[in-house]
Amino acid sequence: MTTSDDQFFQRLFCLIGEIHLVAMKQPDNPASFRGQGRIIHLLAHHSGLSQREIANLAQIKPGSVSEVLERLARSKMITRWRDRTDRRIVRVKLTDKGEQLYHELAEKRRQFEKEMLQNVTEEEKQTFLTVIAKMQEQLNHNYGDLLPKGRKGCDTGD
Questions:
Q1: Which residues of 34-49 are buried (b: 16+ CB within 10 A; e: fewer)?
Q2: Local structure of 153: helix, strand or coil
Q3: Cβ-count burial of 77 within 10 angstroms (0-12 exposed, 13-18 middle, 19+ buried)?
Q4: Helix, coil or strand: residue 82
Q5: Cβ-contact 154, 136 below 8 angstroms
Q6: What's the rounded Cα separation, in Å, for the pair 32 and 26?
Q7: Of the candidates 86, 72, 91, which has an alpha carbon nearest to the alpha carbon of residue 30?
Q8: How many C-beta atoms lie closer than 10 Å to residue 23's C-beta?
Q9: 37 vs 128: which has the higher pLDDT
Q10: How far apart are CA 117 and CA 15, in angstroms?
């Protein structure tokens, strides 16, 4: 049986959408509203980012980042301070409570990944990664000028 390109992409987009829906509807997921989990992840790996740096790395509008940071600050997940060399810049880092949340979310993500892949062999995972790498190569070749540079996990396979 032959699979059309349209069928392939339809199934791929459907799976991605369903994974997103399941992840966001977890009742014990405190980062379920858009952007918060990504920002927590960035701050766990890059303490002291400015709001503009967060917006660029997360590919979120600065106004949206501001809203998420306000929520995180009210929840005592982050702390903010003025940059010593440029007082216009506000730096952000996770508090101990924020670090704890990051580790809890990371563990839940690892468990979800394990559940999703329990019936997938190592060979199947490698084949899938090979297909993704080929698709990324074509995407970069044809549309690289439209893609953001340096997206961790997208360029390196991390």
A1: ebbbbbbbbbbeeeeb
A2: coil
A3: buried
A4: strand
A5: yes
A6: 8
A7: 72
A8: 15
A9: 128
A10: 13
Q: Which residue has the tokens 């990664």?
A: 129
Measured in whole angstroms, how far is the alpha carbon of residue 57 from the centre of its chain? 10
Alpha carbon distance 150, 124 (integer Å): 27
Q: What is the pLDDT of residue 90?
A: 92
Across 19-105, where does the E strand assignment appear? Answer: 49-50, 78-82, 90-94
**Coil vs helix vs strand at 78:** strand
Q: Is 85 helix (H, G, I), strand (E, B) or coil?
A: coil
For the chain, what is the mean pLDDT? 87
Whether residue 49 contacts residue 42, with contact meaning beta carbons closer than 8 Å, is answered with yes
How many residues are recorded in the chain? Answer: 158
Q: Which residue has the tokens 């003025």?
A: 82
* Residue position matching structure tokens 């660029």: 56
115-131 confidence digits (pLDDT tens): 999 999 999 999 999 99
